[in-house]
Amino acid sequence: FRHTAIAALFGLRHVLLAVNKLDRADYDAELYGDIADEYRAHAARLGIDNVVCIPLAAATGENLVVRSPNFAWYD
Q1: DSSP assignment letter at 67
Q2: This prediction's pTM
Q3: Alpha-carbon dihedral angle through residues 6, 52, 18, 21, given to the nearest 10 degrees
Q4: Residue 52 exposed, middle or buried by CB count within 10 Å (0-12, 13-18, 19+)
Q5: Which pLDDT belongs to residue 1?
Q6: CA 40 to chain centre
């Protein structure tokens, strides 16, 4: 959250949030949604209204370049 506050101070208004390590949470769509919603609310309080969230599992490379079937619920 601190990095978002710093980004807002620099005037950034667009953020791409990588929600990582979802492989450790069994690719839980609800957990991802909760994290994305909480982050978007925090960013909005700082004046950042354009936030794109992407679920991924960087350790296995899932959803980094090619859509992973483990994230079939992500649009």
Answers
A1: -
A2: 0.89
A3: 130
A4: exposed
A5: 83
A6: 9
> pLDDT by residue (tens digit) across 2-41?
899 999 999 999 999 999 999 999 999 999 999 999 999 9
Q: Which of 69, 15, 72 is nearest to 43 (CA)?
A: 15
Selection from 8, 10, 15, 75 nearest residue 47 by Cα: 8
| Cα separation, 10 vs 7, whole angstroms | 5
Greatest extent of the chain over all pairs of C-alpha atoms, in Å: 38
The rounded distance, in Å, linking the Cα atoms of 16 and 23 is 20
Tell the residue number behind the tokens 């990588």, with chain if given: 18
